[in-house]
């Protein structure tokens, strides 16, 4: 039952019948109002009746017309129970088409009337329960849709953050994501050496930098009024502009923003690792370049030494042949010395051939190192 008494209108041009019905309803904590015609009933609708016991045949407006006007005015919650001595099918169909809820014959016994009223009360209670359940379901659905939208924003941030390769890009993305929630905030990102501060105005003021430094010392999640602070490794997030009149929304945002901060922290960790790997790769490339330069220098020196050795051998052979003329050697002696020179030349040629094989392998290694260095420079 509602807080106020159940309000019943008794509408009938027969005063005696109104008296009988009113007497039967006494003692039930009902609020009863009597009307002798339809016009009076319509004029009193501001009393917000719960049930109208409405005679069909009355001078002036009939009960059917009164019911139509009640429904036309938007009074859908009030129940209309027609009271008539006629119960043929045509009248019943017309009554229900007009918007009636129930029917009771005139001069019905008291227990029948009270049972009908009890049914009307139960119907109203069920309707209110359904309306309450519907309202709750709508609110739940709205909350779920809001949460889905907020979750979608988080997922979009996480997807986009994977593409961030600089701290500037990641910090700007965090600020933009906060604005999608209708919030403002400040962001601090740190690597192993540097700090990067961000605000909606792109560049933080000295005061904002001081605030970020202070809140970075607070707990993992800290709330004060319309402000929330999140501290994860490498990330400090200060959020402002929360609606303190909506604690449920703040609870959802706290969860979503914590995921944002943790996701940003994971991305910073990945960026730091990528920078370290890049530095190590650059160091290895520098080592390869130094080795390649050394191999090229060795190859050049070897080629120069080989050419010099060939020239020295030829010059030595020519000097010996020239000396044979002045030494007055016999043919056998000259032949013997020529044999020594030819054998030495042959041995040097064999050494040069082995050196050429080594030089060819060295040249192949040098060319391969050049190609690796070139491809590394292009990829960077």
UniProtKB/TrEMBL annotation:
InterPro entries, A to Z: CheY-like_superfamily, Sig_transdc_resp-reg_receiver, WalR-like
Question: Among its keywords, does the record have NAD?
Answer: no
A GO cellular component annotation here is: protein-DNA complex
Its domain of life? Bacteria
List 4-aspartylphosphate occurrences by residue: 55
The GO terms describing molecular function are: phosphorelay response regulator activity; transcription cis-regulatory region binding
Q: Which residues form the Response regulatory domain?
A: 7-121
- One GO BP: regulation of DNA-templated transcription
- One Pfam annotation reads Response_reg
CDD domains per UniProt = REC (cd00156)
Q: Which UniProt keywords apply?
A: DNA-binding, Phosphoprotein, Transcription, Transcription regulation, Two-component regulatory system
UniProt keyword annotation of DNA-binding present:
yes
- Protein known as: Response regulator receiver protein
The source organism is Methylomonas denitrificans
């Amino acid at each position: 039952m509602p807080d106020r008494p159940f309000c019943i209108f008794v509408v009938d041009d027969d005063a005696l019948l109104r008296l009988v019905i009113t007497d039967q309803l006494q003692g039930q904590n009902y609020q009863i109002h009597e009307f002798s015609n339809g016009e009076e009933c319509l004029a009193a609708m501001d009393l917000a009746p719960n049930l109208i016991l409405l005679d069909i045949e009355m001078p002036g407006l009939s009960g059917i017309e009164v019911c139509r006007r009640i429904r036309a005015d938007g009074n859908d919650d009030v129940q209309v129970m027609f009271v008539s001595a006629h119960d043929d099918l045509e009248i019943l169909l017309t009554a229900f088409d007009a918007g009636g809820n129930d029917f009771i014959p005139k001069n019905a016994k008291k227990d029948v009337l009270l049972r009908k009223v009890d049914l009307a009360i139960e119907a109203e209670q069920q309707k209110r329960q359904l309306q309450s359940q519907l309202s709750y379901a709508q609110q739940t659905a709205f909350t779920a849709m809001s949460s889905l939208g907020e979750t979608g924003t988080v997922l979009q941030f996480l997807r986009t953050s994977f593409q961030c390769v600089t701290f500037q890009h990641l910090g700007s993305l965090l600020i933009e994501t906060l604005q999608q929630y209708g919030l403002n905030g400040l962001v601090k990102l740190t690597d192993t050496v540097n700090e990067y501060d961000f605000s909606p105005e792109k560049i933080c003021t000295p005061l904002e930098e001081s605030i970020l430094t202070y809140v970075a010392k607070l707990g993992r999640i800290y709330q004060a009024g319309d402000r929330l602070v999140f501290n994860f490794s490498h990330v400090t997030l200060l959020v402002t502009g929360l609606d303190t009149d909506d604690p449920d929304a703040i609870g959802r945002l706290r969860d979503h923003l914590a995921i944002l901060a943790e996701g940003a922290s994971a991305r910073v960790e990945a960026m730091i690792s990528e920078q370290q790997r890049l530095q190590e790769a650059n160091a290895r490339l520098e080592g390869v370049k130094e080795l390649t330069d050394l191999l090229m220098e060795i190859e050049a020196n070897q080629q120069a030494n080989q050419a010099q050795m060939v020239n020295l051998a030829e010059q030595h052979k020519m000097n010996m042949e020239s000396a044979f003329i002045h030494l007055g050697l016999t043919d056998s002696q000259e032949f013997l010395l020529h044999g020594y020179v030819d054998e030495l030349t042959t041995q040097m040629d064999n050494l040069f051939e082995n050196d050429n094989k080594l030089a060819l392998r060295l040249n192949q290694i040098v060319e391969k190192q050049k190609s690796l260095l070139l491809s590394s420079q292009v990829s960077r």
